[in-house]
Amino acid sequence: MAGFLLSVHVVAAIVFVGSVTVAVSLFPRYARLALEEETAAPALPAVHLLHRISRVYAVLALAVPVFGIAVGSALGVLGEPWVLVSMALTLVAGLLLGGVVLPRQRQLLQLAEGGPGPTSAAAALVAPTTRQADAAVLVRRLAMASGTFNLLWAVVVVLMILRPGSTTGV
């Protein structure tokens, strides 16, 4: 049974977390293009798709810790330090994805689609420059959060492979 659970855990991690990792990595690049007037038309569908992949696969990726806990329980390793640290990093990555990455993707998607416009003639003269600057800051912050999310997953993968402190480690 443990072998089956481990297989599902690993396949779910590769398919679901891998997809989210790629989508959140590519989103800032295409968001930049979608915010530029010359490249907005071809880039906007990609931004929509990447945001949808990020959202849907984030939910599907919840299977990874569920099966991971089942595997850890079946193998009797839930109290091992490498498992506890991996679970904590997974929680941080999930909170970062749900609390920072996905909301910023949504903001940038709204900006790329036109978002709320200026409310006065004076604001209309200043708004495009300010809006572009705000969007550029959002893209940079999103790229940083996405990179941190991906780094957390890389650390979890290394911990799962090396299992430091385990008597059955590599």
What does this structure look like?
By secondary structure, the chain is an all-alpha fold. The protein has one domain (2-162). It has helices at 2-35, 40-60, 63-75, 81-112, 121-162. Helix 1 (2-35) packs antiparallel against helix 3 (63-75), helix 1 (2-35) runs parallel beside helix 4 and helix 4 (81-112) packs antiparallel against helix 5. The longest helix has 42 residues, at 121-162. It is elongated, with a radius of gyration of 20 Å. It starts with a helix and ends in an 8-residue tail after the last helix. The mean pLDDT is 90.
Average pLDDT taken over every residue: 90
Tell me how many strands there are.
0
Largest sheet: none
What portion of the residues fall into strands of 2 or more residues? under 5%
- Outline the low-pLDDT stretches: none
Helical element count? 5
Order of helices and strands: HHHHH
Percent range for helical residues?
A: over 70%
Structural class: mainly alpha
What is the total domain count?
1
Quote the distance from N terminus to C terminus.
Answer: 22 Å
Query: Which outline best applies?
Result: elongated
Integer-rounded radius of gyration: 20 Å
Which helices and strands appear, and what pairs or packs with what?
Elements lengths: L1 H34 L4 H21 L2 H13 L5 H32 L8 H42 L8
Describe this structure in a few short sentences:
With about 170 residues, the protein is mainly alpha-helical. The chain contains five helices and no strands.
